């Protein structure tokens, strides 16, 4: 993808790793799997440590469309770099099947990425919030978010980087499963540190109207992940 654009199809991938193996995988990933995926048309959006789950690695990648996704995944996983490195990567993992396939909630609600890829880290964090929706809520929920919930988030000083809904197109690369049953709305925000996030989250919790507006649409409690970008993550805090 070109700088400044967003990916219409996004994978949110959450891996459970063997204890002590997260930094091993991050070192391998950042060295071997960034440019090699981009070379076959995959937009490597971001790689993260989950601050509250020391054995979880979270990352995002994007594609122009479903057909491109299928072709790019075949090229990468059939290519020489993955074939050479897959045993080392897989040895760090307990589970790699927690994958949400997403599309922007609105045409302009995907990630906007700046040019280039930084070579050093930052102290900021990305917060990924996943709302599991009632079946009847999914179709109309993006409008509820834009017109009702997003203004409340703005009033609480919480920035919205991007927002997505489940993509239910056929998984053209079944060797990598996705959670096809998921009905989710996922949105991302950015804070300078955990303390800043907690202050804004507390301010939002003091607005009962937000919880009241959200609750009827949810099938279960929200999932919130505080993510620290790796040194080569394009999406940064």
Q: H/E series, N to C?
A: EHHEEHHEEHEEHHE
Number of strands: 8
Assembly classification: single chain
The portion of residues assigned to helices is 25-40%
The whole-number mean of residue pLDDT values reads 93
* Overall spatial form: globular
How many H/I helices? Answer: 7
| Main pleated sheet | 8 strands, antiparallel, barrel
Order of strands side by side in the largest beta sheet?
1-3-2-8-5-7-6-4
Q: Could you name the ranges where pLDDT drops below 50 across 5 or more consecutive residues?
A: none
Radius of gyration (CA) equals 18 Å
Helices and strands: which structural class?
alpha+beta
Distance between the termini: 21 Å
What is the beta-strand fraction? 25-35%
Describe this structure in words.
The chain is an alpha+beta fold and 237 residues long. It is 30% helix and 27% strand. The chain has helices at residues 22-32, 35-38, 66-77, 80-90, 141-155, 194-205, 208-214, and strands at 9-17, 43-50, 56-63, 93-104, 125-132, 162-166, 184-191, 223-229. An eight-stranded antiparallel barrel has the order 1-3-2-8-5-7-6-4. Strand 2 (43-50) and strand 3 (56-63) form a beta hairpin. It is globular and about 55 Å long. 33% of the residues are buried. The mean pLDDT is 93.
Which features would summarize this protein structure in a list?
237 residues, alpha+beta, eight-stranded antiparallel β-barrel, 7 helices
Question: What does this entry show, briefly?
Answer:
By secondary structure, the protein is α+β, with helices and mostly antiparallel strands.
């Amino acid at each position: 993808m070109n700088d400044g654009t967003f990916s219409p199809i996004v994978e949110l991938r959450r891996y459970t790793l063997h204890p002590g193996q997260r930094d091993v995988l991050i070192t391998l990933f950042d060295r071997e799997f960034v440019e090699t995926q981009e070379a076959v048309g995959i937009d490597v959006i971001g790689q993260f440590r989950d601050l509250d789950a020391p054995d979880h690695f979270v990352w995002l990648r994007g594609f122009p469309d479903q057909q491109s996704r299928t072709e790019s995944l075949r090229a990468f996983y059939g290519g020489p770099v993955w074939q050479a490195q897959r045993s080392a990567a897989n040895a760090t993992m307990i589970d790699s099947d927690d994958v949400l396939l997403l599309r922007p909630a609105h045409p302009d609600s995907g990630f906007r990425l700046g040019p280039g890829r930084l070579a050093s880290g930052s102290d900021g964090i990305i917060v990924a919030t996943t709302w599991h929706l009632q079946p009847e809520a999914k179709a109309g929920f993006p409008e509820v978010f834009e017109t009702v919930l997003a203004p409340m988030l703005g009033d609480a000083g919480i920035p919205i980087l991007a927002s997505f809904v489940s993509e239910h197109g056929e998984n053209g690369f079944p060797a990598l499963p996705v959670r096809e049953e998921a009905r989710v709305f996922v949105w991302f925000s950015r804070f300078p540190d955990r303390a800043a996030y907690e202050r804004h989250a507390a301010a939002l919790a003091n607005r009962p109207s937000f919880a009241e507006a959200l609750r009827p649409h949810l099938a279960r409690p929200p999932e919130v992940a505080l993510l620290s970008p790796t040194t080569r993550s394009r999406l940064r805090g």
